[in-house]
Design goal:
alpha/beta; Rossmann fold; 2 domains; six-stranded mixed beta sheet; three-stranded parallel beta sheet; uroporphyrinogen-III synthase activity; 4pyrrol_syn_uPrphyn_synt_sf
């Protein structure tokens, strides 16, 4: 019996990294639903005592972070930052709760952002500045991805963000009856359930390793 395809809808580079981590022989359809583009804003690191990274997407639009204190959400973001990692948090709430630093700090992020990190840290007495350094532009799904997502044949859809969940449903309407959706977190799962009326599988921990393990298990049947 053929394995169900895995539909990867993260930005191209992120989707390719996930595909490379899957078991050999796994059929993968890469069709980003979002493209990451620069806004033209820049960050003068000399003005700050540290950088907050809630997504690895910001890293490519920043100067070299070697030697710069960085406070990250997720081990992958910490690994890619190239900075002096002072904190690796599970999510934005965990970062705000655990961050212990002297400002001013800077939080470069996308135009669409959740968690109000800078606002909450400022309220806690840690001076933090927001910079919208990239935008998340909607991208049409490929015909192959739409067919797999809408069809009756088994398929696997990892969902990494609530935003992606909403964009997918806008494009495909009702998902196929045998679509196996895996949500990175409860927040992502709730977004999918609100849009489709279906509750997906949810990762125990919102990490890339946990997501990969669940995709591999689902693909193996």
């Amino acid at each position: 019996m053929p394995r169900p395809p895995v539909i990867l809808t993260r930005p191209e580079a992120d989707s390719r990294r996930v595909a490379e981590a899957l078991a050999p022989g796994t059929e993968v359809i890469v069709s980003p639903v979002t493209d990451i583009v620069a806004t033209g804003e820049s960050v003068d690191l000399s003005r700050y005592r540290g950088v907050i990274l809630t997504s690895s997407n910001a890293i490519g639009f920043l100067p070299d972070l070697a030697g710069v204190p960085v406070y990250c959400v997720g081990p992958r973001t910490a690994e890619l930052s190239g900075g002096d990692v002072r904190l690796t948090a599970r999510n934005a709430d965990d970062l705000v709760a655990r961050l212990d630093a002297t400002g001013p700090l800077v939080h470069p992020h996308g135009r669409e952002v959740r968690g109000q990190v800078a606002k909450r840290l400022n309220s806690a007495g840690i001076e933090t500045h927001d910079v919208v350094i990239y935008d998340q532009v909607p991208v049409p799904l490929s015909d192959a991805a739409k067919a797999a997502l809408r069809g009756d044949a088994p398929a696997i859809l990892p969902l990494w963000s609530a935003r992606s969940a909403a964009r997918l449903v806008t494009q495909i309407g009702s998902p196929g009856s045998n679509l196996h959706v895996i949500a990175l977190s409860d927040q992502v799962a709730r977004a999918w359930e609100a849009a489709t009326g279906r509750m997906p599988e949810v990762c125990d921990a919102p990490t890339g390793d946990e997501m990969i393990a669940r995709i591999v298990a689902a693909a193996a049947g």
